[in-house]
Structures are given as C-alpha cells and as structure tokens.
Amino acid sequence: MLRSSKSGEADAIDPADLTGRLQVPRNADELSRLALTFNSMLARIETGYRSVEQFTADASHELRAPLALIITVYDLPNQLFVRILDYVPSFTVRPDNH
C-alpha cells in the first residue's frame, strides 16, 4: 500500500509545476531514501529549468536593443528615399529636338 501511494504521488507531480515533491516517510528505510533522492533530483531539475528560463529572458533582453538598431539602420535609407521622392516634383523627360 505504501509503495502504491508513493507511485501515485510521483504520478501526481505536474510537469508544468516543478515545485512538487514526494512526502518522505519518517522511518529511515529504502523507501524514505528513495523519496529523498527523488526530491533531490526534482530540485536539481527545477534549478536547471529556472536557470535556462532566466538565461533566455536575459538573452532576449540583451538582444532586443541591438536588433532594433540593426533594423532601424537597415530600414532608414529606404524611409528617407521614399520621403525624398514625395518632395521631388513629377516630370517627364522629353527628347531634345536638335
């Protein structure tokens, strides 16, 4: 019965919520050591996931400004050219009658 309850606890840990842990039995037997080991493993997985999540957020933040600058520098000549064309009067080229 105790083994099936531990299995049910492990199955109940939500992969989307890495804070879940197994209850550790009070007696110092193999099952309690296994639960401690499992909880330790979950803590390491959670820490690793949080580190990757933080790195991704930091990298995204650090890349946002340089990418915005690159896009602006790339797009600026096109915008200026279109604005200049708005101010140039339309004319047609006529062949010289020499």
Structure description:
- There is one protein chain.
- The model has no long low-confidence stretch (mean pLDDT 83).
- This protein has a domain at 2-63.
- Helices cover 70% and strands 0% of the residues.
- The protein has two helices and no strands.
- The chain is rod-shaped.
Short characterization:
The protein has 98 residues and is mainly α. The chain contains 2 helices and no strands.
- Topology, number of strands: 0
Distance from first to last alpha carbon:
109 Å
Strand content: under 5%
Helicity range: over 70%
* Biggest sheet details: none
State the helix count: 2
Mean pLDDT: 83
User: Radius of gyration in whole Å, from Cα?
Assistant: 32 Å
The gross shape turns out to be rod-shaped
Strand pairing plus helix content: what structural class? mainly alpha
Order of helices and strands: HH
Low-confidence stretches: none
Please render the helix and strand layout as text.
Blueprint: H1 2-12, H2 30-87
Characteristic key phrases:
98 residues; 2 helices; mainly alpha
